[in-house]
Description:
This protein is α/β, with parallel strands linked by helices. The protein is built from twelve helices and seven strands. Helix 7 (180-189) crosses helix 8.
Amino acid sequence: MHSFTYDKKRRQVCPLSGGKDSTALAIFLKDKISNLEYVFCDTGSELPETYEYLDKLEAFLSKKIVRLNSEKNFDYLLKQHSDYLPSPRARWCTMEMKIKSFEKYIGEDLIESYIGIRADEHRQGYISQKDTILPRYPFKEEGIDLDGVNKILKESGIGLPKYYDWRARSGCYFCFFQRKIEWVGLLEKHPELFEKAKQYEKQNYKGDDVVFTWVDGMPLENVEKNKEKIKRDYKERMKKALMNQKGKNITDVFKDVVNDDDQEDACLICDL
């Protein structure tokens, strides 16, 4: 470990996703950077648990989390994109509702932006390509891994967000990176949000043909119809994973199981 340093000539900004890693990073940096700005890009389509978690963190930090809102809401932007929903191949929601809001907030100032990628992760990613932004990865710099993040959250009393009981990532309630078991979780925890996501999907129906579905190859109607089978398959995978990963936090095993398929992982700015 070494003494944490930063460029005092730059604005210090810590973007938050509502997930455990960026939350742990905010806690880690709390007493290290006096002028640190905490920022959350609010799409207006976040989970209720995310807002609750941010309120809890804000109270702990004793400092306001700046809530940035997109100038245009999802419904407006969807119309601008001819009702074609965002997807892993067309992530216009991240650009329009997250990155643009963040870039407008920082303007042309010189920034050090703190990103919660852990020492045991092998991704770099970026939040913005502006050359005025210097990305910092304190967990990598300090050698803090998943166990270290969990320790920070436990010792602070913040703990994990409640949606981790049924979902492996932060982000919008209709995030297209969700796996089937996560959609089932949304159906059971927030049926009204599941129904809204289903209605968005139906806007892509052309007669009896489905142009786009949130889950690759399966309309949400079918997820709903097959929820018991999806839950059985998930329970079997969890049972095997827990046997093979004894001693590992069940929340982390859940994320491994949910992500153990051929789908891409979530956008960096949403998943920390």
